[in-house]
Design a protein that fits this description.
Blueprint: E1 21-26, H1 30-43, E2 50-53, E3 60-61, H2 63-80, E4 89-93, E5 99-100, E6 112-113, H3 114-118, H4 121-125, E7 136-137, E8 157-161, H5 166-176, E9 184-188, H6 197-206, E10 213-216, E11 228-233, E12 250-258, H7 288-294, E13 298-302, H8 314-322, H9 327-333, E14 337-338, E15 342-345
Helix pairs in contact: 1-5, 6-8, 8-9
Length: 355
């Protein structure tokens, strides 16, 4: 992760409903259809809130294909059903493209996640189309005391139901429906850091109840923790992390976030004996999907280099989630830019409830 803000929580905790969710299915992908059918049944998503696309089932697509096969059909669907305002969350699935390919480098990269592009569909529909390359400021970033609603925030919050296979995604959905506010917030700093990442981890710990925090400031890495409800760290960017799997016991509703540049580059399953720093899927970093496979209910990730300041801020996402914000709002409060590299995995409605 390369490096090229504070937070005050009010009593706000909103409970949105399945009526605010648009579920997107890729008809060309059997796993997309299976996931969507299961989620719709478990969350009682109305048929009028299910949009069916015909898109390539590839992880990477061109910007033209994104526009013509994903963004435009969703916009047409929302207009036809008069749902532009009511829909707050868009849920994508495995089998829907993950990344928009592009050229350019650093902060002018045209690469972006499909989900981060879709977050700007609200403003696109309302006559304010965004332009690539480079990220667009997220108007919801850091607005911790404001309810998420339209038109105050002209974006959709997009989360993805994905993992290595259907069993992993079924686990996400089932665990999101069995959540209680309990367990430990595990925060693991790396031994030496001058970029601000450790500072944000420390600030996250300071805003949570002391009896709910496990904080490690040493050069060692935390393994084998129990009753974990949230986790934040440097992931494989911590040189002292030597194990692919942390050995945590994750509680239903547990979320994970880390400062890793390419952890959501693919959701293809590596061999069981793979571990970083051996390359897989074009990078030698760890994989977000491992957290889901091991029992987490939600996680953040990046399809390409986001730069540290555009990764989710743990000092925002963890306290927001603790205070009762749902999974989608907690993560998007903490993400500085859209049309960028970020994705959020999980059921947007998953919430711990008020403390």
């Amino acid at each position: 992760m390369k490096f090229v803000l504070i937070f005050a929580l009010g009593p706000l905790a909103l409970c949105q409903t399945p009526e605010n969710v648009l579920l997107v299915i890729n008809k060309a992908s059997p796993i997309s259809k299976s996931i969507a059918e299961y989620y719709a049944a478990r969350r009682h998503i109305l048929p009028a809130n299910v949009c069916r696309l015909d898109a390539p089932p590839d992880e990477e697509i061109s910007r033209d294909v994104y526009q013509s096969r994903i963004a435009d059909p969703i916009a047409v669907f929302l207009r036809a059903h008069h749902q532009e305002e009511k829909i707050l969350y868009i849920v994508t699935t495995s089998g829907l493209p993950l990344r928009v390919r592009g050229h350019g480098a650093a902060l002018l990269s045209e690469i972006a996640s499909v989900d981060s592009e879709l977050a700007l569909l609200y403003s696109d529909i309302h006559g304010h189309p965004h332009n690539a390359p480079s990220g667009i400021p997220n108007p919801f970033f850091g607005k911790t005391k404001a309810p998420f609603r339209h038109p105050d925030f002209p974006i959709y919050l997009v989360t993805r139901l994905t993992g290595y296979d259907f069993a992993d995604v079924k686990g996400i959905i089932d665990r999101a429906l069995g959540v209680r506010s309990r367990g430990m917030f595990v925060i693991d700093l790396r031994g030496s850091d001058s970029t601000g990442g450790n500072k944000w981890l420390l600030q996250a710990a300071a805003q949570l109840p002391k009896d709910r925090v496990i904080l490690d400031q040493s050069s060692s890495v935390l393994y084998n923790q129990t009753d974990v409800i949230a986790y934040a760290s440097w992931g494989s960017n911590d040189p002292d992390r030597k194990r692919r799997h942390l050995g945590f016991r994750w509680l239903p509703g547990a979320i994970a976030t880390e400062y890793v540049s390419t952890n959501a580059r693919t959701f293809a399953k590596p061999p069981d004996n793979w571990t970083f720093p051996a390359p897989f899927g074009g990078s030698s970093q760890d994989l977000t999907a491992d957290y889901i496979h091991d029992g987490a209910t939600g996680a953040s990730g990046h399809v390409a280099e986001p730069y540290l300041q555009f990764a989710p801020r743990p000092d925002i996402v963890l306290p927001a989630y603790y205070q009762g914000r749902n999974l989608a709002e907690s993560f998007y409060l903490s993400i500085r830019s859209l049309s960028w590299m970020n994705i959020v995995i999980g059921d947007p409605l998953c919430s711990l409830g008020r403390p």
